[in-house]
Amino acid sequence: MNALVPLPVLLPLCATGLSLAFGTRLKQFQRFISVAVLTAVLGLSVTLMIAADMDGPLTVHLGDFAPPLGITLVADRLSGLMLTVSSAVTLCVLVYSLGQGMADRDEETPVAVFHPAYLVLVAGVSCTFLAGDLVNLYVGFEIMLVASFVLLTLGGTGPRVRAGSTYVIISLFSSMLFLTAIAMTYAATGTANFAQLAVRLAALPLGVQTLIQAMLLTVFAIKAAVFPLAAWLPDSYPTAPAPVTAVFAGLLTKVGVYCMLRTETLLFPGNRLGDLLMAAALASMVVGILGAVAQTDLKRLLSFTLISHIGYMVFGIGLATREAYGGAIVYVVHHITVQTTLFLVAGLIERRGGTTELTRLGGIARSAPLLAVLFFVPAMNLAGIPPLSGFIGKLGLMRAGVADGSVWAWILVIGSTATSLLTLYVMAKVWNLAFWRAAPPGQALDGTVLESDEEDDSDSDEGPDRMPGTGDEGIRPRHQPAGRAVAATLHGHAVTTTTKLPRPMTWATAATVALGLAFTVFAGPLTSYTDRSAAELLARSPYIEAVLGR
Q1: Residue 262 and residue 257: Cα distance in Å, rounded?
Q2: Which of 45, 137, 150, 250 is the least buried, fewest Cβ under 10 Å from its Cβ?
Q3: Which keywords has UniProt assigned to this entry (predicted)?
Q4: DSSP letter at 471?
Q5: Burial (CB count within 10 angstroms: exposed 0-12, middle 13-18, buried 19+), residue 35
Q6: What is the arithmetic mean of pLDDT over 498-507?
Q7: With bands split at pLDDT 50, 70 and 90, how would you rate the model's confidence at 156?
Q8: 3-state DSSP helix/strand/coil percent for the chain, to nearest 5?
Q9: 3-state class of 271 per DSSP?
């Protein structure tokens, strides 16, 4: 079974080579490769999750080199669960993107870039979840960074390049900080392997331990978009194509949360920086949700709710109890699915109504009732309405806070409640403006093509056809016969509205909605699993013994 551990990383990388080799010449085969490989990765992830739960952590030393020389990959309960959820979500987003026509619009580039970049992104995510040392965790981050920049800037429009440049600058800064932290750790301990660090870090002076811990937390907080290190996110994600935004918002920020969970439990037990983490959690909740309240563009609104709800996960990490870690893990897997779903729905709304600006939308509940249902269910889930999985995760975190009884814990319980209520208000605002009220005059008609003016991508004065703050500056409507699709914002040139949405897009979105509901239906087994995961994280010995053979 240990031999299966590297495959979630190797299969997407091998498929990337095949995808590049075939390019646009055999597009159907290229799409088949991507779907088949991600389906296989999902099956492998489920297998590893079950095996890790039954037999303990699975390890493999590549090349049979023992730590600290060799590359160690480890699949325990937490990484197995994260792999499974991320594989399911990335598969759904791929199907959505195929329905949108993204991968079929790469003739303007030397190679079909979407499929290779997407597969590399999946490999990078899997590498971070399975990494058994800091160096390979860094490698996983860099793999994701390369693929992310390509996906963020698809089409090469001005807003996307600017947003992508901001994303890369912030990511490069965090990478340099990460390298510095790795160098300091290796200089102090002689290893970068997690299991060996868990043994050796305790022998270091307290000041050195705290410095290394603070540097690693800063790196992961940037990746996770924890306030005040989240300013880059609302301007970077909304400009990308809908499937790209969905997988970034739903998954990539949770990679940072995963790394915080892993290092705080395995390398730095004792919760020395717990108060700092809870302060950051509270700030993320409050600032994020207030930012969402102020937005009128759906994508930017969802980006701010993303920042806000990262605070719930950091809340659990800051409490550092078994119940808190279990609640945080439940909330992580819930939020991956729900946030991805909401951004996929935003893409459907854009295709249906021609924009994500809420002041220009209306009447969707009457004209597209299925789309209304696809939004309503994850929106209520995000708000934490009982008995959905969002309520279960929040309840677990609040119960852990009450059981802790500290001042910070009670402040976070109150802050969590207020944030949940404001999230409900924000979702109700979207529902009323985009779905419930009558369609406003001038709403995009069926067959309208919204084209970007590539020759005038400067910061010119806003006119009646511009959409400020949405990343769609320079958009002008042009009417075409209904049903004549041109593109789906892959290159930023056009998006065709239509009353009949492509079936793969609708099916993929419905699948993510169903996955979120499955967490509710199987809440008992899920919470039992996350409780065992939390216990394993706090015990530390199963991980260390599996890697070092003690």
Answers
A1: 9
A2: 150
A3: Cell membrane, Membrane, Transmembrane, Transmembrane helix
A4: T
A5: middle
A6: 77
A7: low
A8: 70, 5, 25
A9: coil
d(CA 77, CA 423): 31
Q: Is 294 exposed, middle or buried (0-12, 13-18, 19+ CB in 10 A)?
A: exposed
Q: Which helix (H) or strand (E) holds 451?
A: strand 448-452
Residues 100 and 144: their CA atoms lie apart, in Å, by 23
Q: Could you give the count of Cα atoms lying within 13 Å of 402 in the half-sphere of its Cβ?
A: 9
Check whether the bond before 387 is cis (ω within 30° of 0).
Answer: yes
Please give the backbone phi and psi of residue 62, each rounded to the nearest 5 degrees, phi first: -65, 135
- Asked if 140 and 56 touch (Cβ cutoff 8 Å), the reply is no
More confident site: 424 or 366:
424
Please, which residues bridge with residue 476 across strands?
Answer: 451
Strand partners, 61: 72
Residue 203 corresponds to which tokens in the numbers above? 């022998």
In single-letter form, the type of residue at position 451 comes to: E
Quote the longest CA-to-CA distance of the chain. 72
The 3 state secondary structure assigned to 139-186 is HHHHHHHHHHHHHHCCCCCHHHHHHHHHHHHHHHHHHHHHHHHHHHHH
Name which of 117-126, 157-166, 269-278 the model is least confident about: 157-166
Amino acid at 291: G
Residue 475, H or E segment: strand 475-479
pTM: 0.87
pLDDT band at residue 25 using 50, 70 and 90 as cut-offs: low
520 φ, ψ (degrees, to nearest 5):
-75, -45
Which of 308, 322, 340, 289 has its CA nearest to residue 396?
A: 322
Quick: pLDDT tens for 409-435: 999 999 999 999 999 999 999 999 988
What angle do the packed helices 253-266 and 134-152 form, to 10 degrees? 170
